[in-house]
UniProtKB/TrEMBL annotation, chain A:
<dbReference type="GO" id="GO:2000060">
    <property type="term" value="P:positive regulation of ubiquitin-dependent protein catabolic process"/>
</dbReference>
<dbReference type="Pfam" id="PF05667">
    <property type="entry name" value="CCDC22_CC"/>
</dbReference>
<comment type="similarity">
    <text>Belongs to the CCDC22 family.</text>
</comment>
<feature type="compositionally biased region" description="Polar residues">
    <location>
        <begin position="318"/>
        <end position="345"/>
    </location>
</feature>
<dbReference type="InterPro" id="IPR008530">
    <property type="entry name" value="CCDC22"/>
</dbReference>
<feature type="coiled-coil region">
    <location>
        <begin position="461"/>
        <end position="491"/>
    </location>
</feature>
<feature type="domain" description="CCDC22 coiled-coil">
    <location>
        <begin position="128"/>
        <end position="608"/>
    </location>
</feature>
<protein>
    <recommendedName>
        <fullName>Coiled-coil domain-containing protein 22</fullName>
    </recommendedName>
</protein>
<dbReference type="Pfam" id="PF21674">
    <property type="entry name" value="CCDC22_N"/>
</dbReference>
UniProtKB/TrEMBL annotation, chain B:
<dbReference type="GO" id="GO:0007165">
    <property type="term" value="P:signal transduction"/>
</dbReference>
<dbReference type="GO" id="GO:0051059">
    <property type="term" value="F:NF-kappaB binding"/>
</dbReference>
<dbReference type="Pfam" id="PF22838">
    <property type="entry name" value="COMMD8_HN"/>
</dbReference>
<dbReference type="InterPro" id="IPR017920">
    <property type="entry name" value="COMM"/>
</dbReference>
<feature type="domain" description="COMM">
    <location>
        <begin position="109"/>
        <end position="176"/>
    </location>
</feature>
<dbReference type="InterPro" id="IPR047155">
    <property type="entry name" value="COMMD4/6/7/8"/>
</dbReference>
<dbReference type="InterPro" id="IPR055184">
    <property type="entry name" value="COMMD8_HN"/>
</dbReference>
<dbReference type="Pfam" id="PF07258">
    <property type="entry name" value="COMM_domain"/>
</dbReference>
<protein>
    <submittedName>
        <fullName>COMM domain containing 8</fullName>
    </submittedName>
</protein>
Amino acid sequence: MEEVDKILIHSLRQVGTEVGEDVLSVKQFSSELIVEAVVRCLRVIEPSLGSGLSHVLPPGMSARFRLGMSLAQACQDLGYKGEIGYQTFLYSNEPEIRSLLMFLVERLRRESAESSDQPAGKSALLQRAIGAKIKAQLSVPWVPPSCRVPFLCQSQTPGSLHGFHARPLSLPQSSKVSRTTTKELKEYCQEHLPPVTAQMSQQPSVPASLLEWHAAELSAALEWEGEWNSQGLVSRLTPEEYKARKRQRFRKRIQDQLRHAAQSRSDSQHASRSSSDLADLLRSFTGGAGGRDVLAKGTRFTHTEKFAFTQEPEKAAQQMTTAAESLPSSRRTEQDLQAQQEEEVTSLQGQLEQLSLRIEEVGADVKKITVAISQVSDELKQKELGNAEKEQSLRVKKQTMDLLPDAENNLDKLQVLVEGSAKRVVSLASQWEKHRAPLIEEHRRLKELCSSRELESTRRLSEIKGLHEKIRQAAEEAKKKEGLYRQLMTEFETLPKDVSRSAYTQRILEIVGNIKKQKEEITKILSDTKDLQKEINSLTGKLDRTFAVTDELVFKDAKKDESVRKAYKYLAALHENCTQLIQTIEDTGTIMREIRDLEEQIETENGKKTVSNLEKILEDYKAIRQENSALAAKIREA
Amino acid sequence: MIKLLEKLPRTECPKFLHRVIDGVCGRDPPRLHDYSSVWSLREWLELVDTLSSIFRTAIGKKMSDEEVQQSINWLDIGYQEAILTCLKGRKEEIRQALVEKTNAISSTQLQDFDWQIKLALSSDKISSLQIPLLNLDLDTKENGVLKPLSIEMNREELQNLINSLESANKVVLQLK
């Protein structure tokens, strides 16, 4: 029993119960200690059940009773099968408490084992650490600033808070700046670049900037890797080519978008404000990196823009003049001057309008003329072509005319000529065939080679992809395992060293050995008993038979002889007495057994501390009566 | 105006020019305090403005060395060389900064963000609250003016924000 108690007390201490050093067995547990132990166990096993219960026994009797009831209910909810009630906690007896605590501790073990089986990564560890820290800080009471000791200062003063403000840094080895180092860049890095910590005027933004920089580089690298693995490898380009192609695609897309937007703007003329916005945007683009030359060509848009801008000031000027005219006149001279100026302005405007009108007219004329010129030149070309054809036909006809007089001869000649050329064609064709066959062969061979190479490359590509995937998986697994290893190591370090597992197992093995030995002895004793029983039976049988024979013999003789009759009487008496004796011995045995049973019962009853518990109950009863009477008195007073 | 640069000794020139480029790239520009013996406030402002715009246009329009030299040909030849070396050394950095600036074409854009997590222990009505709250600070730039935005969110609101940001990210990914 001491072993069990030791284990129980140890695990209760682990849960957080404050078991005193002098408490060595469950027998010494007080009611307060029992309640605390049970509540702590409940809190660990089932936080929702345990959180509502206080681990301190309240002073009032009725409150104690209630706490006992709720504890018993909680234990039953957990699945405790034994007899349990408020009396288990308040008027404890050793075996019941022991079995209850054993049940709870067993549950405890399983729960904690389950939770530790799950592998937790770095983040889980960090979260746990944060949680522990916050819990510790929350448990410390708040102290006014003037009374804080240095230990509290750290956790309770808010400290100087700095916002997270990242600013760009200048670093020599960064992927953002291209790798090619020029002489000037080297000089700058060596002589003028201040160290990172001196690049900011505000110290707190240095770590923020560094973190930001690092995060940006990391995410960019990851994104590029992902994209390259998913799309870049399949395109069979070198990374530079892939990037260039992508850039081109983007440029085209942006260009399309802008053109589209500009067109839709020019369709709806009135929005001059937003078109000027867009113009700003375009100007900012020309100041930027790419697509400059493209945008300079966006002629249609610039035209519309110009149109909108030239019209605006005219309108404004007109409005101004009308406004000025409508003003009441107060001073003559100024008005004269103004009128003169206005006249001038209007005349100039008229001139301007006329001029612009004329320019437009002339421009339209020019356009018409250019269109006419192009039409005429087209016509000219067509006519020239027709002319050349006609000249060709004329020449052919002329030759035939020349040949006509000597028709026979010429026909023969022509036939010879035709035959010769036909022969030549045939020979050329055969020659061509000769050349063609190997060339076609070559072409076919190259094609096959090409396709086989392509196949090979696709195969390799898929292989590479698989390898990439494998590498990533392996890396992930390694990382996970490393994390697990580290976590387990920390857990192992935090584990208490005082309870050695091997000692326990050894003891268990010893106990098992003892039990085996005892079992053997028991079987031996049982067989002994059986033997004895058998002997007794055989002896009884023997006795009975001997007695029967003797009885018969003596009875026969007893009829003849007086002394024999006496002997027979004695024999009968002896037999009877002996039977009685045996009966008495057996009775004694049963009584002894009963006595032993009763003694055991007395022991167990003594173990239940009945007397002290009875006293306690009486006291508590009195206390409750007192409370009741006090309450009644209060009610009466009220 | 650029002639003012010649007031500075030739040897001091690169350091000063690099600080001006720092300013163009979004870091701390040089301070008048360090050069108050050389220039007056007015001269200072003009000089820094001019130099910054020279650097910006030179990189933005991808000018060749000769073109740049033409734009600063009033200067002494030594100073011209100093400017050219600085420009060559910091070319990529300035270009990057200009691209970033061009990237930010929308009227309002996020400059920086910061967050703090807080645990509300109790309120004026409830003694034990224990609700975690996130305090999100967004530094937004609206038409060139820095405008801080502070939002306090509980768990659900934060989840909503994250969800909408994720869907926005999906749209951006589709554009790529």
